[in-house]
Write a structure and sequence with these properties.
The protein is α+β, with helices and mostly antiparallel strands and 297 residues long. It folds into 2 domains: 136 residues, MutM-like, N-terminal (N-terminal domain of MutM-like DNA repair proteins, Alpha-Beta Barrel); 132 residues, Helicase, Ruva Protein, domain 3 (Orthogonal Bundle). Helices cover 22% and strands 22% of the residues. It has a 5-stranded antiparallel beta sheet with strand order 1-7-8-5-6. A hairpin with a 3-residue loop joins strand 3 and strand 4.
Length: 297
């Protein structure tokens, strides 16, 4: 499933084309994805202008005029592509074949730019685990999908002090605590594994050990906060990780998977220069965890 860096990469790819554009019409080619589309979905979007694209955790938020927001989730295989005058905006060889299978083009946004350009933004989803919901702007933060989400890992607010406070008293393993969206929003399995490796912390460690009794941050919590911010920033810069179905909005692939230090590297040597360990795989909460038992304590 696409994680935060993949969704942020998609947002950045779509924003120059979609922001400020008029939605002339929307083709809805099936009644549902993971959930049914909102009632009169196409009719309610036609004629609206896209004010801006935002992201919260793993959700893409399309802000429309007249006070509505379209919440989009990519599910396991959802992706957007951009077409202008019938041609893909990037050379075909950069496109993942799965995106171009028209059988899975479920929603087509026909847009008109201020300069007169006609553009199509197409949502493709072979597994149909994604969804689109239309909500009022005033109800957005209270929506069940968004209410209660934790701090964004891209925010400067995420530092050792805040992380120490969020993990205080938690007796669960550190990996499980970080996967809790109420703690840090948008962190998923891949980037939690990578951040813990960078911080030199075991995924088995009790989460509360990153907090002091007097509330001050520990050296471990400072290291982990920095590692989370850095790994997310690096992944966004690399365009995300093209695992299974994920591709960017222009059809090109993400490349952060070529920089994985532990994820999906079971049995490989640890990449820390001074470490003699071997990457190990364990299962936590039904998910694979990859870590180095030598340098992650």
């Amino acid at each position: 499933m696409p994680e935060l860096p993949e969704v942020e990469t998609v947002r950045r790819g779509l924003a120059p084309v979609m922001e400020g554009a008029l939605i002339e019409k929307v083709e809805q080619r099936r009644p549902d994805l993971r959930f049914p589309f909102p009632a009169s979905f196409s009719e309610r979007l036609a004629g609206r202008r896209l004010i801006g694209l935002a992201r919260r955790a793993k959700y893409l938020l399309m802000h429309l005029d007249r006070g509505f927001v379209l919440i989009c989730h990519l599910g396991m295989s959802g992706s957007f592509r951009i077409e202008r005058d019938g041609d893909l905006e990037r050379p075909a060889e950069l496109h993942h074949a799965r995106m171009k299978d028209g059988r899975h083009d479920h929603v087509v946004f026909h847009l008109r730019r201020a300069e007169g350009a006609s553009i199509r933004v197409i949502y493709n989803d072979p597994r149909r685990f994604g969804f689109m919901l239309l909500v009022q702007e005033t109800d957005l933060n209270a929506h069940p999908l968004l209410a209660g989400l934790g701090v964004e890992p891209t925010d400067n607010e995420l530092d050792g002090m805040l992380l120490s406070r969020l993990l205080s008293g938690r007796r669960s393993p550190l990996k499980a605590a970080l996967m809790d969206q109420r703690v840090v929003a948008g962190l998923g399995n891949i980037y939690v594994c990578e951040a813990l490796w960078r911080a030199g912390l075991s995924p088995r460690r009790v989460a509360a050990t990153l907090s002091r009794r007097d509330g001050r941050p520990t050296e471990r919590s400072n290291r982990l906060a920095q590692a989370i911010r850095e790994v997310i920033a690096d992944a966004i810069s690399a365009g995300g990780s093209s695992l299974r179905d994920h591709v960017q909005a222009d059809g090109s692939l993400g490349y952060f998977q070529h920089s994985f230090s532990v994820y999906d590297r079971e049995g490989a040597p640890c990449r820390k220069p001074s470490c003699t360990g071997t990457v190990r795989r364990i299962v936590q909460g039904g998910r694979s965890t990859f870590y180095c038992p030598v340098c992650q304590r």
